Each structure stands twice: as structure tokens, then as C-alpha cells.
UniProtKB/TrEMBL annotation:
PROSITE patterns reported in the protein's UniProt record: SIS
SUPFAM superfamilies cross-referenced by the UniProt entry: SIS domain
Protein name: Phosphosugar isomerase
Organism: Companilactobacillus crustorum
CDD domains in UniProt: SIS_AgaS_like, SIS_GlmS_GlmD_1
Pfam families per UniProt: SIS
Family, per entry: Belongs to the SIS family. AgaS subfamily.
GO BP terms: carbohydrate derivative metabolic process; phosphoenolpyruvate-dependent sugar phosphotransferase system
Superkingdom of the source species: Bacteria
Catalytic activity, as annotated: D-galactosamine 6-phosphate + H2O = D-tagatopyranose 1-phosphate + NH4(+)
Keywords: Hydrolase, Isomerase, Repeat
GO MF annotation list: carbohydrate derivative binding; hydrolase activity; isomerase activity
InterPro entries: GatZ_KbaZ_carbometab, GlmS/AgaS_SIS, SIS_AgaS, SIS_dom, SIS_dom_sf
Length: 390
């Protein structure tokens, strides 16, 4: 797909999505530079919040809808290890949960930083979540991470002292139906903000991540070989932050094939507890393998188990090679580093998943740039009624 001309891709209805997947390593360079340029402002903002409440931990709520919610799901496990948990409590709560049950998720007395992830910043739930938080939470601060400067959330944040606006690279505002660069750039930006494990290593980690992303794109023929197999079910597994990533990976398949292929996601350990019933002879299973040596054992265990069961079409480990590798088929990214933290490993991994979803869209004769032929699913959600909250 990535070597086709724009004219060829236009005939397939795939030009926008293909190029938006392909450009992500370049966007990551820009996102990192944006973070570097804003670092003093970011640090001052966080210091202002924490110094105001020196004896309390601050709730950091990552929120968004759909793919934007999965940004938080991917971040939270890693930040519980690598973030400053002496000052922050990291949570991931979708806007859809907050809007439908605000008092289940927002607490009036708890100092809170609401981190809104949004491609357009115009979805009804995103706007309503901010309005509800402002009504309910007495000590509310906000970080708005969005890709559209003209969007409602960005415009609102521009002149609010307690709202830090972090715009993503212009080209991350995906024009295609599926979120790709928006997801990876927003994830990277938030990781850089809250990862306090090793500030001096971030530049090297991002450089490695970029090389890995470029390599995945250059090896599309290997991904196509998996897409050419005879299957109609797809499973994504992982652990920690890579478990959070599985939900985004499976969503790309659902979106780009308009549900023509069924998918499931789970943690590597959780899969045995019933969801494994999904696997049959026409299932392909991928596991995003952790670089943490302890956690990786569980990824390898489930891969070896499924391989030994001989119950699926193919089972594949995805990630970076290490001392403990799956004995079956692997898509190892050679530019990877076995010491790369999982949140940075996640973004080259998601390019693999996005590319595989794109190929499956073509395989089922769908149109990747506009996959919902019925128009019942939209780039920015429609048909939402936001009820008054008193």
C-alpha cells in the first residue's frame, strides 16, 4: 500500500488513510519538538497545581471517546509505574462514562486535572464532559490535547488560565475516517508530560520509536502475507499498556472493514478465562509482546499455549526480540530496543495494527477512507442527545 502511487490509492479509496498511517514517524518528530518547546510551560502548570495542594494527591483523569479513550487506556498502566505517583493518581475514564453517570466518576472535593484527548474537539461527549467537570469539581484544572485548533475544546482552552492547551502536529488531524496519527501523537505527548522515569532518555527513546515505525512501514509485504491468510476472526492480546493498546488495534479492523471481520481483544493472561472460546480454525492471533522481562513471560506463555492447541489459522508475536521469544512466528522490529519502555513500544506496534486493518479493508472490498457505506458511523459522532444535568 505504501509504495502505490496516489492515483492508485485514490482508485481504491485508500489514499487518505494510507498516507496518514505512513506519515506517523515524521509526526512523532514534530510532536516531540512541540513537547520540548512547551516543556517549561508544562512543568510550571503542573507545579502550580501540585504546590496548591501539597498534602493531597491530584487525580489525573485521561478522557476521550472511542480511540481518544483508548489513549488513556494505553497510558495509565505505564504511568502507574513511570509517573510521579507521589503527586498524581492516574485514571482513564471515557467521556461516554462521565456524561452518562457523572457522579460515578467525578468527585467534588478532589483536586483534579482533566486531560481531554480529542481529534476534532467537537464531539458532543467531549464538550459535555468538560462542562460537567466544571460544574461538579470544585478544584478543576485541565490539559487539552487536541489536533484541531479550530475545534470547540481548543477554542475554549485558549484563554483559560487553568487549562493548558497542547495542540498536536497539524497533519495529525486525520482527514480519514479512522484515527491514526491523532492517536499516536496524543499518546506520545501525554507520555512525555507525565513520564518522570528518565527525562534524559526521552529523546533517545523517541528516536528509537521513530526508526521502528519507519521499519514497520518498510516491511509491509510481511504484514500483507498475514493479511493474505484465510481467516475471518482476529484477536489482539497484550499486557500492561500493550493490553490497553489491543482495544485500539481491534477497533481499526472493525472500523475499516465496517464489521465484515469480527475481532476480540484481551490481556494475555485474561484471555484464558472464557474469551479464548472465540478462537477457531479461521482465527489469526496477535500478541503485542512486552519488553519487561517478568511480564513478557505471560505473553510468551499464551502464545505457546495457543500454538500447542493447534486451534487457529496463525498465532504471531509482535514487538522486539529478547532473551525470551515465542518459538512460533514473530514480527520482530529489528530497530527496536529490548529496554524500550512499553508506552514507546506501543506506537510502532500500532502502526503494524493500523496497516493490517488497512489491508483487511481492501481484502473485504471496503473503502478505507469512507468505510461506513451506510453512513451510520461518522468521523465525528452524530445523533447524541446531551441531557441537562442539574
Amino acid at each position: 500500500m505504501f509504495t502505490k502511487t496516489d492515483q492508485e490509492l485514490e482508485k481504491m479509496g485508500a489514499k487518505i488513510t494510507t498516507r496518514e498511517i505512513q506519515q506517523q514517524p515524521d509526526l512523532w518528530k514534530e510532536a516531540f519538538q512541540n513537547y520540548t518547546n512547551k516543556k517549561s510551560e508544562i512543568d510550571n502548570f503542573l507545579e502550580k497545581v501540585t504546590s496548591t495542594y501539597p498534602n493531597q494527591k491530584i487525580r489525573v483523569i485521561f478522557t476521550g471517546a472511542g480511540t481518544s479513550a483508548y489513549v488513556g487506556d494505553t497510558l495509565r498502566p505505564y504511568l502507574n509505574r513511570a509517573g510521579d505517583t507521589s503527586r498524581f493518581v492516574f485514571e482513564s475514564i471515557p467521556t461516554t462514562d462521565i456524561v452518562s453517570a457523572p457522579l460515578d466518576n467525578l468527585r467534588s472535593e478532589d483536586p483534579t486535572i482533566l486531560v481531554s484527548f480529542a481529534r476534532s474537539g467537537n464531539s458532543p461527549e467531549s464538550v459535555a464532559t468538560v462542562e460537567l467537570a466544571e460544574k461538579i469539581v470544585k478544584n478543576l484544572y485541565q490539559i487539552t490535547i487536541t489536533c484541531a485548533p479550530e475545534g470547540h475544546l481548543a477554542k475554549k482552552a485558549e484563554n483559560e488560565d487553568a487549562n493548558l492547551l497542547l495542540l498536536q502536529p497539524a497533519l495529525s488531524n486525520d482527514k480519514g475516517f479512522a484515527m491514526t496519527g491523532s492517536f499516536s501523537c496524543m499518546t506520545l505527548t501525554a507520555a512525555l508530560i507525565f513520564d518522570t522515569s528518565a527525562e534524559d532518555k526521552k529523546s533517545a527513546w523517541v528516536d528509537t520509536m521513530i526508526k521502528m515505525g519507519q521499519e514497520v512501514i518498510s516491511r509491509e509485504d510481511e504484514i500483507q502475507a498475514y493479511a493474505d491468510l484465510d481467516y475471518d476472526r482476529i484477536t489482539y492480546l497484550g499486557s500492561g499498556s500493550l493490553s490497553g493498546l489491543t482495544r485500539e488495534a481491534q477497533l481499526k479492523v472493525l472500523e475499516l472493514t465496517a464489521g465484515a471481520l469480527t475481532t476480540i481483544f484481551d490481556s494475555s493472561m485474561g484471555f484464558r478465562h472464557g474469551p479464548k472460546s472465540y478462537v477457531n480454525g479461521k482465527t489469526i492471533v496477535f500478541d503485542f509482546m512486552s519488553n519487561d522481562k517478568y511480564t513478557r513471560q505471560y505473553d510468551v506463555d499464551i502464545l505457546e499455549e495457543i500454538k500447542g492447541d493447534e486451534i487457529c489459522k496463525e498465532v504471531v508475536g509482535v514487538g522486539t526480540s529478547d532473551d525470551n521469544d515465542f518459538s512460533g512466528k514473530n514480527f520482530f522490529i529489528e530497530a527496536g530496543d529490548k529496554d524500550l519502555p512499553e508506552i514507546y513500544q506501543a506506537l510502532p506496534d500500532v502502526i503494524f495494527a493500523q496497516t493490517f486493518a488497512l489491508m483487511n479493508s481492501i481484502k473485504v472490498n471496503n473503502i478505507p477512507d469512507t468505510p461506513s457505506a451506510s453512513g451510520t458511523v461518522n468521523r465525528v459522532v452524530k445523533g447524541v442527545t446531551i441531557h441537562d444535568y442539574e
